From TrEMBL:
<dbReference type="InterPro" id="IPR036661">
    <property type="entry name" value="Luciferase-like_sf"/>
</dbReference>
<dbReference type="InterPro" id="IPR011251">
    <property type="entry name" value="Luciferase-like_dom"/>
</dbReference>
<dbReference type="GO" id="GO:0004497">
    <property type="term" value="F:monooxygenase activity"/>
</dbReference>
<feature type="region of interest" description="Disordered">
    <location>
        <begin position="433"/>
        <end position="453"/>
    </location>
</feature>
<dbReference type="Pfam" id="PF00296">
    <property type="entry name" value="Bac_luciferase"/>
</dbReference>
<protein>
    <submittedName>
        <fullName>Nitrilotriacetate monooxygenase component A</fullName>
    </submittedName>
</protein>
<comment type="similarity">
    <text>Belongs to the NtaA/SnaA/DszA monooxygenase family.</text>
</comment>
<keyword id="KW-0503">Monooxygenase</keyword>
<dbReference type="InterPro" id="IPR016215">
    <property type="entry name" value="NTA_MOA"/>
</dbReference>
<keyword id="KW-0285">Flavoprotein</keyword>
<keyword id="KW-0560">Oxidoreductase</keyword>
<keyword id="KW-0288">FMN</keyword>
<dbReference type="InterPro" id="IPR051260">
    <property type="entry name" value="Diverse_substr_monoxygenases"/>
</dbReference>
<feature type="domain" description="Luciferase-like">
    <location>
        <begin position="23"/>
        <end position="389"/>
    </location>
</feature>
């Protein structure tokens, strides 16, 4: 556990993040199709000295609930609109100077060369702030969009993801940091001896290489991962520098974090090389009562069916045939296993009906909702952090940019006052600020002499 906690902003490039009420903000419209919207969010989070922001993504409209798109599109579920996050990050990069920039890319429906090239470009253009949220995708809708009849099974997806990261890493390391010469007088652009083919031939991929972009400030982007199944945690322990923890309470956060730290040690990586960040959704008020009123007003905007539409997409399972007024007894989906386990647990412990599960899922996708004044929320965050339950927090907004503005204006100052959050950015790159280490060989970690400051 580091002395100061890390902060990240969670986003989707669309009308819904974890909050399915986000686009229904009663105070003002949410202009999620505009560049200005995302640029402003980036500036707000940078003002709050966040380490990074990152965008979740999916590659299909949700159509598992009722096996059609009706509910998700009518009510606005999590997949109703998803802009490509990489162009959005280019907008934010131009509007900011320090905050890390993360985008989701799928190892199931992409090729390593394309992904390695995209994130190296972002790392150059942002001066060393790129991060890749690695996902294996969730459901059959994504498979059908890419010409497959069904989504790959869980184990095969992670086998492919492991090889994907191996190839991408080789491509990022195919240029030495000093390979780019740029000697204008002698007319020498680069040293060919310091640029290598990778000649990878594997089960899922073939790639000759090298990458056609010189080494960037970070060499490789920071790797983010969110797998909660046993296989997902093993993958995270091997590759990730940031792990996104979606857990409904501090006890579950602590158990998840302990498992990741054990896995990192078993993988032979140094302590602290992988940061676990737990998701929370804050509601800030002048009093705790006001904050709770804001939470309740937000939650009342959520239709249980929109939560079930997103949950069906996440589980790759049609829930529409189950009775809304009865508890869930048994479910088996091929999508996200961590969310499935949490849903089954809270349903059993609290004897919740399917409609109640849909309501909870639509409110926050089970992200814990924190209510209080800025100082009260800061104290709650610090208590979770000091207990060793995580290395920091992913702030999930109820409304945009409102929730981030409230957090930055009222919670961050209380955290800074206690020395828990930086007052000024230090270091040149996102990896410097996270104090993390990339997995595997050192490769091209350091900035070449010509890199942007």
């Amino acid at each position: 556990m580091s002395a100061t906690l890390h902060l990240a902003g969670f986003l989707s490039a669309g009308p819904v993040v974890h909050s399915h009420a986000l686009w229904r903000n009663p105070q003002h419209p949410t202009d999620f199709l505009s560049a200005a919207h995302y640029a402003e969010i980036g500036r707000v989070l940078e003002r709050g000295r966040f380490d990074l922001l990152f965008f979740a993504d999916r590659l299909a409209l949700a159509d598992r609930f009722g096996n059609d798109r009706e509910t998700g599109l009518r009510l606005g579920d999590q997949d109703a609109t998803r802009l490509d996050p990489l162009p959005v990050l280019a907008v934010i990069a131009a509007a900011t100077r320090h905050i890390g920039l993360g985008a989701t890319r799928s190892t199931t429906y992409e090729h390593p060369y394309h992904v390695a090239r995209a994130f190296r470009t972002l790392d150059h253009l942002s001066g060393g702030r790129a991060a890749w949220n690695v996902v294996t995708s969730l459901n059959d809708g994504e498979a059908l969009n890419f010409g497959f009849d069904a989504h790959m099974d869980h184990g095969a997806r992670y086998d492919r993801a492991d090889e994907f990261l191996e190839v991408a890493t080789k491509l990022w390391d195919s240029w030495d940091p000093d390979a780019l010469v740029l000697d204008r007088g002698r007319g020498i652009y680069a040293d060919p001896a310091k640029v290598r083919s990778i000649d990878h031939v594997g089960r899922y991929f073939r790639s000759r290489g090298p990458l056609n972009i010189p080494a960037s400030p970070q060499g490789r982007p920071v790797i983010i991962q969110a797998g909660a199944s046993g296989r997902g945690r093993h993958f995270a322990a091997r590759w990730a520098e940031v792990v996104f923890c979606l857990a409904p309470d501090p006890a579950a956060m602590a158990a998840f974090t302990a498992s990741i730290r054990e896995g990192v040690a078993a993988a032979g990586r140094p302590p602290g090389s992988c940061k676990v960040l737990a998701a929370v959704m804050p509601f800030v008020g002048r009093t705790r009562s006001e904050a709770e009123d804001r939470r309740d007003a937000h939650n009342a905007l959520v239709d249980p069916r929109v939560g079930l539409s997103t949950l069906s997409a996440h589980l790759n399972l049609d829930l529409s045939g189950l009775p809304l007024d009865r508890p869930i007894e048994r479910l088996a989906g091929t999508g996200t296993q961590g969310n499935l386990a949490h849903v089954l647990r809270i349903s059993a412990e609290e004897d919740l009906t399917l409609a109640q599960i849909g309501q909870i899922y639509g409110q926050s996708v089970m992200v814990p909702q924190l209510c209080g004044t800025g100082r009260e929320i800061a104290d709650e965050i610090v208590a979770i952090f000091r207990a060793g339950a995580c290395d920091g927090f992913i702030i999930s907004p109820a409304f945009l940019p409102d929730s981030f503005v409230d957090f930055v204006d009222h919670v961050v100052p209380a955290l800074q006052e206690g020395g828990w959050v930086r007052r000024h950015y230090e270091g040149q790159t996102l990896r410097d600020r996270l104090r993390s280490e990339p997995a595997g060989p050192a490769g091209t970690r350091h900035a070449p002499a010509h890199a942007a400051p």
